[in-house]
Structure formats: structure tokens, C-alpha cells
Design brief:
about 240 residues; Rossmann fold; 7-stranded mixed β-sheet; about 40% helix; globular
């Protein structure tokens, strides 16, 4: 990573508890799709979840029966991971320099984390640690822009940040990915919705004053739309799975 992405990636360390409490999880259909596209089940599989953060995906992989190991570079995120997932092993490192044995894993997963890597390094590392026929699974969980109020909010966020650096994810072209989209939703208190936004790196880099100004304005707008204080967030998970 260059210095700016690295700084943004490390911004989560100061907000790990906020991240853990308010970020969405993932639907079971996502893991069904991972298994289908990989051609094998997660139960009993050796899985390394890279950029594990506070363990949102890691815990769900373990619940599917995977023998999962987490890889996380950040001090704050790793500490929160250990509090939330005391029974799951965690090693410190990142996708560009995986502290993992060669040909030791059936799956390598990146839940909203691949874009923090340098593909020139992370692709060879994925090939190294995966067993022959192993699967690299990358996914991103985005709010559904076909929902009018979400599209309007997204436009306000893009205006705030001048759209710079908000869309910088891509699947590595040197691997052959099978793709799938999974749509799902969650119903949550308005304050959780707003805290979810505040836990994103763009807002963490913006700082408390600017974030508070935006969040207060959003609270006023959304209270009018959701007078009972409950928001339905609709999501689209974009999944890519490549066999290596």
C-alpha cells in the first residue's frame, strides 16, 4: 500500500469498538455462494480470513464449521477481535506478507479487505498459501443504490469527500473469478445506521468535528423518513471466487 491507503487502513484501530458494534454482518446466502463457486464446503476446511478486523466474517466462517485462522495487522482491531472471539486463533500480518505456511489452506477470504492490499504482492501470496485447487474469496458489502434514500445519502457522502478515494476496489485481472451478487437487509435503530457510517475510514480520516456535523444533518433528514427510529438498510454483497 502507498502511505495514504495505509493511513486509512490503520484509522480503524482507534475506532475498533465502534466498528464491532455497528458494522453489518453477512447473510448465510453469501457463504452458500462461496461454497458453490469454490466447489467444496466450508465445514472442516482450513480457512485464513485476512484483514479480519474485529472478526465479523471470521466468526461466521467458524459457525459454518471451518477451521478458521484470522490475520489482522492493526493493534486496535486485533485487540477487539480477541475480546469478541477468544476461541479463534489470530496472527498479526497482512495480505502482502502472509505469516502463513505454504500450501496450508483450502480457502483464503477477504471480507471487505482486499482493497487494502497491493495485488502485485497479495496475489502471489494467495497462490503460495493456498493448496492446489484452493479458493480465494473476496467480497464487499455495499448499501443498495437502487433504494432512493440510500442513493441520495450516497450522493451526499460523495459530495462531502469529492468522491476521492471512495471507489478503489477491483478484482485482480490475473485470476479467473466467478462472480455472484447477494442481496439482503437488516432492520436497525437509526443511531446504529449513523454509527455504521461513522466507522468507515473516510469519516475516521475526516475527524470528529466534520463527522459529527454530517451525522447530525443525516439524523435530521432520516428522522423524517423513519419516524419510528428504525431503518431498513438494504445491501448488495459482491462476491468473487477464484481457484488457484
Amino acid at each position: 500500500m502507498t502511505s495514504m491507503p495505509r493511513t486509512r487502513a490503520r484509522s480503524f484501530d482507534a475506532a475498533a469498538a465502534l466498528y464491532s458494534a455497528n458494522r453489518p454482518g453477512y447473510p448465510g446466502e453469501l457463504f452458500d455462494a462461496v461454497e458453490e463457486l469454490a466447489g467444496r464446503g466450508l465445514r472442516g476446511a482450513r480457512v485464513a480470513d485476512v484483514g479480519a478486523g474485529t472478526g465479523i466474517a471470521t466468526g461466521l466462517l467458524r459457525a459454518r464449521g471451518a477451521e478458521v485462522l484470522a490475520v489482522e495487522p492493526g493493534d486496535g482491531m486485533a485487540a477487539e477481535f480477541r475480546r469478541s472471539n477468544p476461541g479463534i486463533p489470530l496472527v498479526r500480518g497482512d495480505g502482502d506478507r502472509l505469516p502463513l505456511v505454504t500450501a496450508g489452506f483450502d480457502f483464503l477470504t477477504y471480507a471487505q479487505a482486499w482493497h487494502w492490499t497491493d495485488p502485485a504482492r497479495s496475489v502471489p501470496e494467495a497462490r503460495r498459501v493456498l493448496r492446489p485447487g484452493g479458493a480465494l474469496a473476496l467480497w464487499w458489502n455495499d448499501m443498495d443504490p437502487t433504494v432512493p434514500w440510500i442513493a441520495e445519502q450516497d450522493e451526499r457522502i460523495r459530495d462531502l469527500f469529492d468522491a476521492a478515494g471512495l471507489t478503489y476496489r477491483a478484482l485482480p485481472a490475473e485470476l479467473d473469478f466467478a462472480l455472484r451478487e447477494i442481496r439482503w437487509s437488516r432492520r436497525i435503530p437509526l443511531d446504529v445506521h449513523l454509527a455504521n457510517h461513522a466507522s468507515h475510514s473516510a469519516f475516521l480520516m475526516l475527524g470528529p468535528a466534520g463527522t459529527r456535523e454530517f451525522i447530525d444533518a443525516e439524523r435530521a433528514r432520516l428522522t423524517a423518513l423513519f419516524p419510528d427510529g428504525t431503518v431498513e438498510e438494504r445491501y448488495v454483497v459482491t462476491l468473487g471466487v477464484a481457484l488457484v
